[in-house]
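Quick one, tokens below:
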């Protein structure tokens, strides 16, 4: 009797586990969208070193979280991220910035041998979520430094985007706020990272040569031949 009861428990656990696995495997997978970007021409543009994006602890999971009206977060039953969200944001930042700056010279830290950055960009995301009745919200801080590490600029950012409530539209809205953030970053890089034009050295004024007094013309005496010697001036 004990053996039969134990076997029944094992069977029940197996069925529940299989059901959970099947449900987990069939959940739709989502990725952030890059928007309309293009691949820049090779070997041109500003050199940017991108630090790995730091994201909040609650975002470091595959499940797609839902922000409720009371501010709490619950896991979506039928949606999850397709892979690591932090790694996805790293690649989104790299590709979108490269397109907007028209530069192939963007490298993720720690960089590669021989790469000399003109600017260094660090980004920290403390919030990126939405809910059926809550807009997509992105809260972040970014810092821009020169190639020598000196701070050039930095901002605290909060962006919002409305959506229809479906998971698909929530991911679209989250993608849009990230794209808006990248536009701000691209503008900052262009403003602070472009080389400052150096003024041309002042030219010494050329001293005008003093005018030489005109040499007086000496009349030439020409003899006139005739009956007598007549001199004409």
């Amino acid at each position: 009797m004990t053996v039969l009861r134990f076997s029944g428990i094992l069977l029940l656990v197996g069925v529940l586990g299989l059901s959970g696995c099947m449900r987990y495997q069939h959940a739709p997978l989502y990725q952030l969208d890059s928007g309309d970007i293009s691949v820049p021409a090779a070997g041109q543009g500003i050199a940017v070193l991108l630090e790995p994006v730091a994201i909040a602890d609650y975002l470091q999971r595959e499940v797609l979280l839902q922000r409720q009206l009371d501010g709490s977060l619950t896991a979506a039953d039928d949606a999850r991220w397709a892979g690591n969200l932090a790694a996805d944001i790293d690649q989104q930042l790299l590709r979108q910035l490269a397109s907007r700056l028209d530069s192939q010279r963007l490298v993720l830290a720690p960089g590669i041998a021989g790469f000399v950055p003109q600017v260094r960009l660090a980004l920290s995301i403390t919030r990126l979520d939405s809910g059926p009745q809550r807009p997509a919200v992105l809260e972040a801080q970014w810092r821009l430094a020169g190639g020598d590490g000196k701070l050039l600029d930095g901002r605290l950012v909060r962006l919002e985007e409305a959506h229809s409530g479906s998971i698909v539209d929530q991911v679209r809205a989250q993608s849009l706020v990230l794209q808006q953030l990248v536009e701000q970053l691209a503008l900052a890089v262009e403003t602070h990272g472009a080389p400052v034009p150096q003024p041309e050295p002042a030219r010494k004024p050329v001293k005008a040569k003093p005018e030489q007094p005109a040499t007086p013309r000496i009349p030439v005496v020409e003899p006139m031949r005739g009956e007598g010697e007549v001199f004409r001036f």
